[in-house]
Every structure is written in C-alpha cells, then in structure tokens.
Amino acid sequence: MHQKTQNRAVRDAIQAGDIERFVQLVGANPEVIQQMTPFGTWLHVAASYGHVDIAKYLVEAGLDVNQRGGTFEGTALKLAASAGHLEMVKFLVACGSVLDVSEPEKNPLFGAIFGGHASVVEFLLQQGIDYSATYSGQFMQHLDAKAFAKERGQLAIADLIQRMG
User: Are 121 and 113 in contact (CB under 8 A)?
Assistant: First the structure.
C-alpha cells in the first residue's frame, strides 16, 4: 500500500475509533506507528478524537506521550484538552504527560479554556497545572488562565480557577 494511502487509511480508522482496523493496518507495518504526520503522531490524532483504546495501544507500542508534533508542535495532551476529551486527558496524565505551560499554544489549560471544557480545566487544576503562567505576545498581553477565561467569555471557568487556585 502506498504510504499516503496507508496514512489516510490509518487516520480514517483512528477518526472512526475502529481499533480493529487500526491494529490491522499498523500490525502489518509496525514502523507506521512511529510516523510523524502533519497532525503530529498517531497519538496526537487519537487524542484529538478522544479514542483512549487506540491511544493505549500506541503508548504500549512505545509512542512517547510527550512527543511534540502538529501545527503548534504541541503534545497529545494539549489536543485532548482542547477537544474536551476528559478521559483521554486523564489517560495521558496517568502515562506521564507533562503539563507544559511554556507557551500558550502548548498549554493544555488554555486549550481547555478556549474550548469551554470546565471538567478538563478542573482536572488539570487538580493535577497542579500552573494557572498563574502569564503570556504576552501579538494576541495577548499579560494574560494568565483566569484572565484568558474572562477574555474568552468563559466566566464560569474563570470562577472555577479563582475557587480552586
């Protein structure tokens, strides 16, 4: 199977949450698991769709939960948090995913706030993510998580950060 066709088939299987098809595709070609795609690793793709069973397979196959990839060179955790996939976030944290606050684009808390995912915000705060990390740049000036939540109109999340912080 041509690599582009194979990658599309693997991505389609992940997107559909079809673990059997996914295992069939990568089982015949284990090197496929290690491929970096424009979306990041296959773990990034599984995280963005919230398919924990596929993520578990990939982690057991040796993929690094802290591997950077995709558009902003973020981790699978950032994608899962941004999409509001709480069970995936819990799985990745349990597997040792770093709570990266080095940049707003890599910060899973900012991703969860942007998407309005209060349950993910609460979990990340319980895990000790640094909610006081402050960013300034082209699109934000001196914003921490609470200020970012307010700016995004996520007032309930801003209150949650205030209460838990």
Answer: yes
Q: In the listed set 85, 111, 133, which residue is the last one of a domain according to the structure?
A: 85
- pLDDT tens column, 126-165: 999 999 999 998 878 899 999 999 999 999 999 999 999 7
**Residues 6 or more apart from 22 whose CB is under 8 A from it?**
10, 13, 14, 54, 57
CA distance 109 to 17: 25
Enter the tokens of residue 29. Answer: 């070609």
Structure confidence by residue, pLDDT tens digits, 18-60: 999 999 999 867 788 888 888 899 999 999 999 999 999 999 9
Domain of 59, CATH number, reads: 1.25.40.20
- Predicted confidence (pLDDT) at residue 72 exceeds the cutoff of 90: no
Domain stops at, among 50, 85, 120: 85
State the Cα–Cα distance between residues 103 and 105, nearest whole angstrom. Answer: 5
Distance CA 151, CA 148 (A): 5
- Tell me if 93 is assigned to some domain: no
